[in-house]
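Our platform keeps sequence and structure together, in a single record for each protein. Such a record has a labelled line for the sequence and another for the backbone structure tokens. The tokens are whole numbers drawn from a learned vocabulary of local backbone shapes. The remainder of this section carries one protein's record, kept here as part of the documentation:
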Amino acid sequence: MRLHSISPRTLSGALAGVLILGLTAGAGVPAAHAIGVKAGKWTLHFNGNVNAHYIFSHCQNLSNAADVTGGLSCVTATKAGGGSSSVSNGLLPAALTVSGDTTQDGYDIGFTFGLYPGISTNDGGSPNLQTGAGNFGHTALGTAGLDIRQVFLTVGNKTMGTVMAGRNIGLFQSDAILNDMTLLGVGAGNGNYAAPANTSLGSIGLGYIYTDWLSQIDYTTPNLYGTKITVGIFDPLNTLGQIPVNHSTPGFQAKVAYKAGPIYLSASGLYQRQAISCTDTALAPGACGPGTYELKYSSTGFDLGGMYTVGPFQAMGWYYRAKGVGTTGLFVLSNDMLGVPRTSEGFIAQLTYTVGKTKFGVNYGQSRLNPTANDLANTATVAAGTDLPTLVKKNDKWTFGVYHHLTHNLLLVGELSRLRSTNDLNQKNTSWNINAGLFLSF
């Protein structure tokens, strides 16, 4: 995957196909539009993909599995058997994106709508939720879910840069996921998907935090000697599982990317002020002092990394560190019961080799959630037989993959992944995934 600069006029169309191609927005190859229609001064583009994979996972049996809150290694719901089979989407759901662009009064303007249906039966009435813990069985008369991830506009030109406004992929950690080789495959995922239900995890929570799809207004500079800078204001997110509190300040994210020949480097950052209501039942009694209505802290995070291509070899890696951001998803397990933010960190490293139409690759990633003093105090009480702590300390994964272009648009995918989850007591679960599938892009 090679990265090039794109003009503001093609930015909308490139972003529409960014996940299909697995390239970074603002520095990616413009999507190869299968269908283009001229309508007056507007040009309309249609892009998309359809993918399906057979996935078999050998999971840890419940009878000898450790309890790991936030663990990503799969565990069977019953004591009998250790396997899980499914025919499902991979890390990407299917996609149909419609975009348009034109030039008016010296401004390049565009729009994009991105519709992402899954193929798995949607048991819970939402593409992001299934009904009941461990209730993964599909029944007759089911339907698939639809995830509307992208609704945005762009305006700019080569002199002023580009403004993007609407719902689109975030900036923080976006390069890590968009250059993960499992983007077009499965990576972690046994078909019994939690959230998002339409997709597997790839290396989400196993080397990087999910960048997510967020409401935002961004500004990207023109290309400055191979460098582009993007800054954005974001609709703030509440901490998952806690009672929402009105935020007085929005979220902020920024990214700087540099491209020169075979080298691509980037860094991104995140800031948001968090507040937790003192009436939140997730807080421990006494977490708030007299007259206190909410606990506040600042969530911050950064990542940095890059790619380097030499002949048929390509190496890539990204590292992140955060405080009050949590693990796997934004603001998931981000603070303890006293409202103290947890720190987290992780990395993904990848090496691929391409010969002819076939790419061979291996990547390894790990995400760590560091316990607070209160978490460690709970761990110390285990000897007394009380309050067994199960909080995840580390999730990590190896994936070996083969990706063969049968045609220009049709990709055959095969992967083998090993996952391991470790809690604060150093108890571990291990699972294996093997998948084979097809990925058609247009």
Summary: Helices lie at 8-16, 18-21, 174-178, 373-380.
